[in-house]
Design brief:
Blueprint: H1 16-23, H2 27-39, E1 53-57, E2 60-63, E3 68-71, H3 85-97, H4 108-118, E4 126-130, H5 133-148, E5 152-156, H6 165-170, H7 174-177, E6 187-190, H8 207-220, E7 223-229, H9 241-253, E8 257-261, E9 285-288, E10 300-304, H10 325-340, H11 343-364, E11 368-374, E12 377-382, H12 393-406, E13 408-409, E14 411-413, E15 417-420, H13 428-446
Bound molecules: pyridoxal-5'-phosphate.
Residues 132-134, 137, 160-162, 229, 233, 261, 263-264, 289, 300 line the site of pyridoxal-5'-phosphate.
């Protein structure tokens, strides 16, 4: 019997606020939710569900009862918005011409995408595709083993790298890891650099985080890979420049493959195409996914360099949809939209609007302990008081449900961190409207 983990990513399925929310739903919606819950296996962060969707469009999800909700969650896959015309046209074209390409055959869609991805980061011009982010990380872990001959992996507590047995082993969240039996062996975890709740005092540069990693590399002696998100998406943790530069050096010193998981944050979300560009480092392997499929098709990839191109005796991926024409067409269209519509610059500019508004809110509302973010990825950490920094879990839930009722959806991480992740195509009036909804929720909760 599993327990409810209030610190898990996302809202809790069984809270009082959820019960109140359910009572307000229309009878038809309630009936559909019940049928859903009757058939789907119940699981944390998923079923029973919040609402029933009928459509999605641009920055909105639209419920079966016709409510339009600005989607600042979108599972981090809606960089170019929902039902993007360029994406749909490309997908329909592939769908009607070459919907599937059996393994051992290739096609121009996949070749074109490989070339395009290979041109995006200097030196990272070898690719493998996968049907999901978890699988892309699995392939990265395998490649690191094949390359170094070492199987041990260092990763971070609290991390999420996918729901597979290998990826939950390098992940660091109890709701995935606990009470589920033996995980992959040879995994070590280190603390996540955290600017608000650092493990160590007086460590602004996060040198102690780096020393801890060095300690693990030295004590284990044969670590093969270090995997982490460059910037953690869930509770928005942005490591210092010093941290990533020193970790890059450490990985070189210990012959450890540096795998950066940018599945939710690449493709411009942070104001750069890859988040690692903010740090002036290049990983050995980067994994991307989610928005790569244009909010249409499951599509992920790993990008690496020629020196990892010696796995000929292994089936590293071997996925049925390995070189999907539809997924590749969707991804090419996404890259085209990002370029043509200057979505990366737009993310930087809109990020400044969010930053200014959230800072104002922090000055006004005592419950906002910390505001942090970059580009179009923001975290608002709610606390019961700023001194103790006690996580304000109930406040966060009330804010979430208040916003949902008023037309804004987002995710709550760690029980108290509001995660704001709008589509990059968002219009300014939509952004301002979302920020107004959030601000009104704070006002309502205080009174
Ligand atoms: C950082 C990170 N890595 C990996 C994954 C797994 O991606 P997928 O759900 O496509 O397997 C996710 C999904 O949320 C993620 O956020």
């Amino acid at each position: 019997m599993s327990t409810i983990n209030y610190k898990a990513e996302g809202d809790v399925n069984f809270s009082e606020s959820r019960k109140e929310w359910q009572q307000k739903l229309l009878p038809d919606t309630t009936a559909l939710l019940k049928t859903d819950a009757d058939y789907f296996i119940h699981q944390a962060l998923s079923t029973p569900c919040l609402e029933v969707l009928a459509e999605c469009d641009g920055s909105y999800i639209i419920t079966a009862s016709g409510r339009r909700i600005l989607d600042f969650h979108g599972n981090n896959l809606h960089q170019v918005g929902y039902r993007n015309e360029t994406v749909l046209t490309a997908v329909i074209s592939a769908l009607t011409k070459l919907p599937f390409s059996p393994r051992r055959y290739t096609n121009e869609y996949a070749i074109g995408l490989a070339q395009k991805l290979g041109s995006l980061a200097p030196g990272l011009n070898k690719v493998l595709f996968a049907p999901g982010g978890s699988e892309a990380n699995s392939m990265a872990l395998k490649l690191a083993r094949i390359h170094t001959g070492k199987f041990k992996v260092v990763s971070m507590w609290g991390a999420f790298h996918g729901a597979g047995l290998d990826t939950i082993s390098v992940g660091g969240e109890a709701s995935f890891r606990s009470n589920i039996g033996p995980l992959m062996s040879g995994t070590e975890h280190v603390p996540q650099p955290n600017t608000y709740r650092s493990f160590w005092d007086n460590d602004e540069d996060q040198d102690k985080n780096v020393e801890y990693v060095r300690h693990v590399f030295e004590c284990e002696g044969d670590v093969g890979a270090f995997i982490a998100e460059t910037i953690r998406n869930t509770d928005v943790q942005i490591p210092t420049l010093n941290f990533w530069r020193r970790i890059r050096e450490l990985c070189d010193e210990f012959n450890v493959v540096l795998i950066l998981d940018e599945i939710p944050i690449a493709l411009g979300r942070t104001g750069r195409f890859f988040a690692f560009e903010h740090y002036g480092i290049t990983p050995d392997i980067v994994t991307i996914g989610k928005g790569l499929g244009g909010a249409v098709f499951p599509m992920a990839a790993l990008l690496t360099s020629e020196k990892f191109n010696h796995a000929v005796g292994h089936s590293v991926g071997h996925f049925t949809h390995e070189k999907s024409p539809i997924g590749s067409a969707a991804a090419m269209a996404v890259l085209e939209v990002i370029e043509k519509e200057n979505l990366i610059e737009k993310a930087q500019q809109n990020g400044l609007i969010i930053k200014a508004r959230l800072s104002e809110m922090q000055n006004r509302f005592e419950m906002i302990g910390d505001v942090r973010g970059i580009g179009l990825l923001w975290g608002v950490e709610l606390v019961t008081d700023r001194k103790s920094k006690t996580r304000a879990i109930e406040h966060a839930e009330k804010v979430l449900y208040h916003c949902l009722e008023n037309g804004l959806s987002f995710k709550v991480s760690q029980g108290n961190v509001i995660n704001l992740c709008p589509p990059l195509i968002i219009k300014e009036d939509e952004l301002l409207s979302a920020l107004n909804i959030l601000e009104n929720a704070f006002i309502e909760i205080i009174h």
